[in-house]
Each structure stands twice: as C-alpha cells, then as structure tokens.
Amino acid sequence: MNHESIFRILFLTLFVAAFAISIYHRHKARQSGGQIARGDESALMIFFRALIALPLYGAMLLYIINPEWMSWASLALPSWLRWLSVALGLTMLPLLFWLFHSMGRNISETVLTKTEQNLVTHGPYRWVRHPLYSVASLAFFALGIVAANGFIIGMTMLVMLMLPSLVEKEEAQLLAKFGESYREYMSRSGRFLPKLKSV
Q: In degrees rounded to 5, what are phi and psi of residue 85?
C-alpha cells in the first residue's frame, strides 16, 4: 500500500466517524425533540448553505472515490504535517461526541430554535456558545490537510469566514427565545473559543 493510499484510508475513517457521530445524535434529537425543516429558513440562507456545502462535501466524496479526480487541487504538503492533521482529526472525534451529547434533544438543523428548546450551558457549552462550529471547522481543516487538497482547505476557510454572520442570525433567535438568560450567558462565555478572564 502506497503513501497516498494510507492517507486516503485515514481521511475516509475520520470522515465516516465524524458523520456517524453527527447522524446518530441528530437522529436521537429528532426522535425526542422534533425537527425544524431547513425549508423554514430564509431562501437566502438555504442558498448560501448549498453554495458552500455542495462543493465542499462533493470534493470530499470525489477524493474518497478517486483522488485523481481532485488532483488538480493537490498540494505538496510534508508528511509530518499530514500525520499531525490525522492526530488533530482524531482529537476532534471525542469532542464531537461530547458536544452532541451535551446538546441532547436541542440539536437543530438550522439557525432557528425549536419550540421546546432548552438553553444548554453545560459540557463544552459552559465555556463556548458555539463549540460545534469550532470543532467542525477544525475537523474539516484537518481533513483538507490529510488529503493535501487546496480546494477542501480553501472551502473550509471560506466557511470559517462566513461563520460570524451565520452565528449573528442564530444568536438573534436565541436572544428572542431566552432573553436575559441568554444575554447573561453571552457575557460569561466565548463565541467560538473560551473567553479569557481579565486579571
């Protein structure tokens, strides 16, 4: 088995493991807490989700099926960096499980809130309001490095640049639902990373 085949297998393993964790917890949340249809979001939000998600996931699937199809975007990255990214991807898996488990029935497919949604402030949410976005971004970035693919890395960076705008819409929904409780939560937690306490 050659060098590239090993990285492809590791990419597939990380990709499938991350999606298995996500699908399992999202299914449980739908069973116990209901579901908000993506169609309930604005047409503009749906358009931008598709504009980003389809090329990103499509590129990943093409790389899994046949890396040659994505060779036009390949990068000459050192093996040590790709192995380091494998380790980063593996680290993200238990974090994904922890944050999905912490959300429980409150997992939503959209920026909208569920009728019976609770404000989650335990687990990783004790310190960070949107750890799923942080962990998923790092996981996708790690996958791009493992694949040594500039397109996957670039699309992930584009997603990361768009996250603040997405989160503003989500937090407006959460403020409307939870009011002062959410405002107080915002004051003591970071958006994507834990808030540094001033000395």
A: -70, -30
